[in-house]
Amino acid sequence: MTTIKILGTGCAKCKSTYNNVLKAIEESGAQANVIKVEDITEIMTYNVMSTPALVVDEVIKIKGRVPDVSEIKALLG
Amino acid sequence: MFDWIHYFADWLIYGVFQLSEESKLGTSLNFFVYDTLKILILLFVIVFIMGIVNAYFPVERLRDYLQRKKLYGLEYFFASLFGSITPFCSCSSVPLFIGFVQGGIPLGVTLSFLITSPLVNQIAIAMFLGIFGLKATLIYATSGILLGTFGGWFLGKLKLEHLLTDWVKEIIANKANAASFEEEKRTLVERLPEITREAWGIVRGVLLYVIIGIGIGAAMYGYVPEDFFEQHLSKDKWWSVPLAVVLAVPMYANVAAIVPVIQVFVAKGIPLGTAIAFMMATVGLSIPEGTLLKKVMSFKLLMIFFATITVFIIISGYLFNLIL
């Protein structure tokens, strides 16, 4: 199962990323485990400087912007 | 360039809504429609252009540049300049801060970036351009960048590294593990739809603030007596700049909402310099930002940081009033 992490300290952009991820999973029917990472020390272990960031199976796919639903679906394969 | 918006506003208010050109309501609404449309167009254009600039210079690349190049003191200026072109989101300030110090960039240089980032950003520039015109915008942007440069340089000289929080000190100690970023592989044309979507999203995000700001501005315009502020906060009162700044520091307002309100202050007799200082203090320093930075700075460092910026903003307020 795919693990998707959304890195972000809880700002509006991070929330819309989270919602888009949920929507993408629902629409594509993919099996995925979604985790919100809001702790700054944990976020920094991924070495990202611009949030929100989207991590799929421990690989940073998107950072610093809100991806839309279709883009996330493409990432889910 | 914006003539057609005038025609449109005239047509809508005096034609469609049948309001008289002489009535207070008619002129206010006309002004409101014109200002809102003009500012939204400017916002979109500027955010879009900055999106393209950012596609070429993501913050990771800017950090790499500061890390590798020997800049002989100019690194403060460059960090501040980079802060002005990077889109600001208060929630990114902590990751940015850590990313910089992790990359071995000195604390003062990092602070230069951090000072300018909220102060000079695409939304502030668009709002300023729409409301005060090109000259005031250039003065605002230049002084914001210089403020970040000197503020960071001054704080760097104070050697405050020991006042960072412990986990940040640890990160600095093991800075070797900072990885460099990977290049974006897509071409600009391939990214244009995404940049356009982003720009549109940002404009939509501040739309409400713009409307509220212009609305409050328009309402205040009609009801605040002509020389109200002149009597209380005029140029020849030495304490007017510090008072405006100190009042503004704890305040937090969206930059899109604050500029139209400041326009009214200026129209009613507050010197432009005092108004710019007020705005800088509102957007540059705030309690929410302080709580975020508390994660990386000890209380003492946070206080030194805020106090330094406050003093620098007050100084620039005096300078503006001298030259403007």
3D structure, described in words:
The complex is a heterodimer of chains A (77) and B (324). Chain A has helices at residues 12-28, 40-44, 69-76, and strands at residues 2-7, 32-37, 53-56, 59-63. Chain A has one domain: Glutaredoxin (3-Layer(aba) Sandwich). Chain A starts with a strand and ends with a helix. The mean pLDDT of chain A is 84. Chain A is an alpha+beta fold and 77 residues long. In chain A, strands 2-1-3-4 form a 4-stranded mixed β-sheet. Chain B is mostly helical. Chain B has one domain. Chain B has 16 helices and no strands. In chain B, helix 12 crosses helix 16. The mean pLDDT of chain B is 83. At the A-B interface, helix 1 and helix 2 of A face helix 3, helix 5 and helix 10 of B.
Structural descriptors:
heterodimer, A: 77 residues, alpha+beta, Glutaredoxin, 4-stranded mixed sheet, 4 strands, B: 324 residues, mainly alpha
Largest sheet of chain B: none
CATH fold field value of chain A: Glutaredoxin
Q: Please estimate the helix content of chain B.
A: over 70%
Please give the number of β-strands of chain A: 4
Number of domains of chain B: 1
Regarding CATH, which class of chain A? Alpha Beta
Strand content of chain B: under 5%
Q: If interface size is counted as residues with C-beta under 8 Å from the partner's C-beta, which chains form the largest one?
A: A-B, 20 and 26 residues
Question: Any guess at the CATH architecture of chain A?
Answer: 3-Layer(aba) Sandwich
The general outline of chain A is globular
Q: How many angstroms separate the termini of chain B?
A: 26 Å
**CATH H-level superfamily of chain A:** Glutaredoxin
